[in-house]
Amino acid sequence: MSKNITKRTATSMINKSRQRLKKIVKDLKSGSPKTGQEKLVQEYGIEHTKIIGWQNRYFVFEECQPKGPADLIFIKINVEGKLVQFNIDAKGIHPNCKFFPVGKRRPTTKNFKERNELYKRIQSISWRVEDKNFTHSFNKNGSIKTKKYPKGFMVFKDAYNKDITDKITKR
Asked: Which of 46, 91, 92, 155 could make an SS bond with 103 (beta carbons 3.0 to 4.6 A apart)?
């Protein structure tokens, strides 16, 4: 038995998720961000997060309950032989959104704060994942800067809004 997901299985699952993602993007592109497409935007974020997990050789598990604490669970065994697990709440941003996302995690409600701390839940934020390469211009201190993104915008944040993307994508 393999410690981590095999490359062949990961490739197969990535291809299936990319096909689902194409259908979701096609449905999302037809509407504006305010047309009641919240469920599709959530699926958009989940599918892209699953692709990131398989690319980094994690086993990816989906939630069974609709109001569960995590949408996805990433599990693998690291180089030292220790189990690495991430409980992820996946969020998507509508691809027709005109502004650049800040990439900040939503604060949890008072009722779920203790639960989320116990689960050590992190949040993934996906935007424009269908675009292979894109540039975004933004105004910083009065001057216009341009930043290039190779494969869409993807960030993982912990409970304290700290970017932990490198921990997940590190092999």
From this structure: 155
What one-character-per-residue DSSP string does the chain give? --SS--HHHHHHHHHHHHHHHHHHHHHHHTS-TTSS-HHHHHHHHHHHHHHHHHHTT-EEEE-SSTT-S-SEEEEEE-TTS-EEEEEEEEEE--TT--SPP--PPPPPPTTTHHHHHHHTEEEEEEESTT-SSEEEEEEETTEEEEEEESS-EEEEE-TT--B-HHHHH--
Question: What are the pLDDT digits (tens) for 40-92?
Answer: 888 888 998 999 899 889 999 988 777 777 889 999 988 888 998 999 988 88
pTM confidence score: 0.81
Domains identified in the chain, total number: 1
